[in-house]
Design a protein that fits this description.
seven-stranded mixed sheet; about 190 residues; single chain
């Protein structure tokens, strides 16, 4: 008897036909006030960033690999990468594929024997695997358009007024009139 097809779940993001942008892991940081961890992805062809809040264990897994640190025994992501290799499965790329209800979703694109498979993953796990295997990381341009952050050029323009003002000041005093740090004269008291 033939089984009915498995229904496609909302988080099942097999078809990645939309435009993608390549990114790199810029850094892993800790928000000082909340002690929350964030991985910062940077788009390779422009100044746009994607911050993704992640758990401390995944943050540590990504950061240690970025720093070139390896553990004495394999960690979970190391074990998974090794298992894929031993089974002849190649990780082709990692994609941060969607953003639903303020939660990012990722896809691992795997290849074995000429067949491609898309596996749903948490972005933190997908990124930890990507930094271990050296595969390229992509983000859906729709996700970048919704959640990406670009440095504010407007703020830079506002600061430019102050830069121009400071640069216009003629503060090049001769040595005998200088005081404080960087001069030979102690500050006046």
């Amino acid at each position: 008897m033939r089984q009915p097809p498995t229904p496609r779940l909302e988080w099942d993001n097999r078809a990645m036909t939309e435009p993608l942008a390549e990114v790199v892991v810029e850094s892993v940081r800790v928000h000082m006030l909340s002690s929350q961890h964030v991985v910062l992805l940077k788009q390779t062809d422009r100044e746009r960033y994607l911050p993704i809040w992640i758990g401390p264990w995944e943050a540590n897994a990504i950061a240690t690999r970025l720093q070139g640190v390896t553990s004495e025994r394999p960690l979970t992501h190391d074990l998974f990468a090794t298992t894929l290799a031993e089974l002849g499965v190649e990780l082709q790329r990692v994609i941060v594929s969607s953003l639903a209800d303020e939660t990012f979703h990722a896809t691992l694109e795997l290849e074995k024997d000429g067949h491609t498979y898309a596996v749903d993953a948490r972005p933190s796990d997908a990124l930890a695997l990507a930094v271990r295997t050296g595969v390229r990381i992509y983000v859906s341009t729709e996700v970048l358009d919704r959640a990406g952050v670009e440095p504010k050029s407007q703020a830079d323009e506002r600061l430019q007024v102050f830069r121009e003002f400071i640069n216009s000041l003629d503060l090049d005093l001769d040595e005998e009139h200088r005081e404080g740090p960087g001069s030979n004269q102690p500050p006046r008291t």
